[in-house]
Design a protein that fits this description.
The complex is a heterodimer of chains A (about 375) and B (about 300).
Chain A lengths: L1 H21 L3 E8 L6 H20 L7 E8 L6 H12 L4 E3 L4 H14 L3 E3 L6 H4 L4 E3 L4 H14 L5 E7 L3 H16 L3 E8 L7 H9 L4 E3 L4 H13 L6 E3 L6 H7 L7 E4 L8 H13 L7 H20 L4 H9 L4 E3 L2 E5 L5 E2 L2 E7 L2 E8 L2
Parallel strand pairs in A: 1-2, 1-3, 3-4, 4-5, 6-7, 6-8, 8-9, 9-10
Antiparallel strand pairs in A: 10-14, 11-12, 12-13, 14-15
Helix pairs in contact in A: 2-12, 3-4, 6-7, 9-10, 12-13
Chain B lengths: L1 H31 L6 H22 L5 H27 L7 H20 L9 E2 L8 E4 L2 E4 H23 L1 H11 L1 H6 L4 H26 L2 E2 L5 H14 L4 H19 L8 H15 L14
Antiparallel strand pairs in B: 1-4, 2-3
Classes of the chains: A alpha/beta (about 375), B mainly alpha (about 300).
Chain lengths: ~375, ~300
């Protein structure tokens, strides 16, 4: 009996604030990010980029004459937490659009909730294709793993001249599994051979068992599509075991922490990512300058640039929609062509993915060095 | 052949770490009959203590060096001993007369409290921190085999601590008192043993072990975060149960077996995905046939 009365009440109370907020004087945008936990540096970077974008917009008078209210929730890099915070942002806070997040597994958790509520969601950096396949409300401002995997497969074949490659995948992460799959397809298509396939669990500290097996397969290179904390330890233990071939990976590597933990063990390895802060383009340099000014001289990484882009891209769509109605924003997002973002020119395709170029960086002298740009 | 021997070395090195952590679990259980789940978090605090102490010590005695490493470890051990005694005093002592389950749940609460307080950006922050190098590192090559100096340090420390603990528990007055408390607290109190002192001592000793394990674990995988204790803590707890909880050599044996199982399961292409699954399935099998653990004594409950 209690339950019967409770349910309609809950439904009403969920709807009420939503109506109130959208009629208010600001535009409420919800953001979920991994501000603490394992992938915290990703979440913090993208969050800082997003905050910078919102502050820039509000300083210039806001969007449609209204200020943007950015509400940020932390999912602690944990599975399950994202659905709680996204439900809260939509139902309780009445967000008209959602921004988030870097890790694909957690964006995949938020996507069905946004889709059901008809709220557009823009992911800054989730590269797994499944994220936008959830439905027509889900967008992203980054490239997807089939592209990134192919880029690395071609790089390993053409530049590193590798014939046999071992793949070392984090089975806990959708991002890692997806990227590994597309790398393998691309590499085999380019005439390469997969020497060994090993798995680890993100958060493991001992990789010597798998690395010993990889070493005995004698590959020319190892593809490790993991996140930076794991990759740093993998590089250290690979070096200890005398596995001296180049390691390659994706955008999950890009963090200062990789260099701090890995030190000389990560030297000379390669990865693909979204942008290089040492690129010469005026858009990039203007962004780097304003980010440095706002965050005490910190150099923005790819996640910060994408966080900035995701908010600016959403604001641009709201402007073009001329309204804060979620449906109108969604249609404007879907119609984006040639949007000039910090991380390159973005066109939204039929799958609501951004079509744009990738860059390849190498770890050299304790820094990320720009190597080449690969167009889509 | 090389492959097999290298995996054996990897497994023994990993197993020694588990064994070292398991010693702490099993000793506290042996005396108090309860699992101190906060053990894994004291381990993390030990690693962080060393992380913050290393720059200070470095300015007096340059690191990496043996003297410097020993000094950092000793101070961290003292800090963690204090924390262990404090945890017991604040969280477990008020519940001494309550059912065991209450204390067990409190232990889990203490563990979560430490983990999530430390994740706050004003404390340690949640991001992974690079652990400084304390000891000079060297990799020894024997043909195609590689043994790293850190692994040797772990094996030797585990053996020394096992012997030291056995000596304390079996051969000293304090150890006799600990065993008396473990048999019957009331009777021990009637014999003039200060129960509070013995329990504090046990927690202090357990936390000292955790601090050493934390530092060695951080040396092996030099990225530390507030949740670093969770995984090895769980494994070590299982190792302690496997060896027969409360039994010191059993904990060491359990740790080694678990380390070897994980390494061999993890080193097979295509099966590495099931590394933990395989290791734990074998553990369940062992416990089905030896419910009290490999070296544990089956006790008959008198009704």
């Amino acid at each position: 009996m209690l339950r019967r009365t409770f349910l309609p009440l809950a439904a009403v109370s969920l709807l009420l604030p939503a109506c109130n907020k959208s009629g208010g004087d600001g535009i409420t945008i919800g953001e979920f990010a991994s501000l603490t936990g394992k992938e915290a540096t990703f979440g913090i970077s993208s969050h800082e980029g997003t905050v910078l974008a919102v502050e820039t917009l509000n300083a210039a008078g806001g969007v449609l004459g209204k200020k943007i209210d950015l509400l940020t929730e932390d999912n602690q890099s944990k599975a399950g937490e994202t659905s709680n915070v996204v439900n809260k942002l939509i139902s309780k806070d009445g967000a008209v659009a959602i921004l988030g997040e870097v890790a694909s597994s957690r964006s995949l958790e938020a996507a069905p909730i946004c889709q059901q509520n008809g709220i557009p969601m823009v992911s800054p950096a989730s590269t797994n294709p499944k994220v936008t396949e959830t439905g027509d409300c889900i967008f992203r401002v980054c490239f997807i793993d089939p592209f990134q995997g192919t880029v690395m497969a071609n790089f390993v074949t053409n530049t590193l001249k590798a014939k046999k490659v071992a793949v070392f995948t984090d089975v806990k992460s959708d991002y890692s599994k997806g990227l590994a799959k597309f790398f393998k397809e691309g590499f085999i298509k380019a005439g390469g051979q997969i020497a060994a396939e090993l798995d680890f669990n993100g958060g493991d500290k001992d990789f010597k068992a798998q690395l010993t097996a990889i070493k005995s397969a004698a590959p020319d290179a190892v593809f490790v599509p993991g996140y930076y904390t794991d990759v740093a330890l993998i590089a250290i233990q690979a070096k200890q075991l005398g596995l001296s071939v180049p390691l390659c990976g994706g955008d999950g590597w890009e963090s200062q922490t990789l260099l701090d933990i890995g030190k000389d063990a990560v030297e000379g390895h390669y990865f693909s990512t979204h942008y290089a802060s040492d690129a010469a383009s005026p858009g990039v340099q203007a962004f780097v300058a304003s980010y440095k000014k706002r965050y005490n001289g910190k150099v923005p990484d790819a996640m910060a640039a994408l966080g900035y882009d995701s908010a600016m891209f959403l604001a641009d769509a709201i402007k073009r929609a001329g309204s804060t109605d979620s449906k109108a924003i969604r249609d404007a997002l879907a119609a984006t062509k040639d949007y000039e973002a910090v991380t390159g020119k973005i066109a939204i395709n039929a799958q609501r993915d951004a079509v744009k170029s990738a860059v390849i960086l190498q770890v050299k002298d304790g820094k990320f060095k720009y190597l080449e740009t690969v167009a889509p | 052949m090389d492959w097999l021997l290298q995996q054996l070395i990897n497994g023994l090195a990993l197993g020694s770490i588990y064994a070292l952590i398991a010693l702490g679990y099993t000793m506290v259980y042996g005396v108090l009959r309860f699992i101190n789940f906060a053990h894994a978090d004291v381990l993390m605090l030990g690693a962080y203590a060393a992380y913050f102490l290393a720059p200070a010590v470095n300015s007096v005695i340059p690191l990496p060096s043996l003297t410097g490493a020993v000094i950092v470890t000793l101070i961290s051990v003292m800090i963690c001993t204090g924390i262990g005694i404090l945890i017991e005093f604040l969280a477990y002592r008020p519940l001494r007369k309550r059912p065991r389950l209450t204390v067990l749940i409190t232990a889990i609460g203490v563990s979560l409290f430490i983990e999530f307080t430390c994740q706050h950006s004003a404390v340690f922050g949640a991001d992974t921190k690079p652990f400084p190098q304390l000891l000079p590192e060297h990799d020894y090559h024997f043909g195609g085999l590689v043994v790293s100096s850190n692994d040797l340090v772990v094996v030797v420390t585990t053996l020394l601590l096992l012997a030291g603990l056995w000596f304390i528990v079996q051969r000293t007055k304090m150890g006799t008192a600990m065993r008396a408390v473990s048999h019957n607290q009331q009777a021990a109190a009637l014999m003039g043993i200060n129960i509070n002192r013995i329990i504090s001592f046990t927690f202090g000793l357990g936390s000292a072990l955790a601090a050493i394990a934390g530092i060695l674990y951080a040396m092996k995988a030099p990225g530390i975060d507030p949740l670093m204790g969770v995984q090895p803590g769980l494994r070590a707890f299982i190792a302690a149960v496997l060896g027969g909880i409360g039994n010191l050599p059993g904990a060491a044996l359990g740790g080694l077996i678990l380390g070897l199982l994980e390494t061999f399961a993890g080193g097979i292409s295509g099966l590495s995905n099931y590394r933990d699954g395989i290791a734990f399935a074998i553990l369940i099998l062992i416990l089905l046939f030896k419910p009290a653990g490999l070296l544990g004594k089956a006790t008959v409950e008198k009704v």
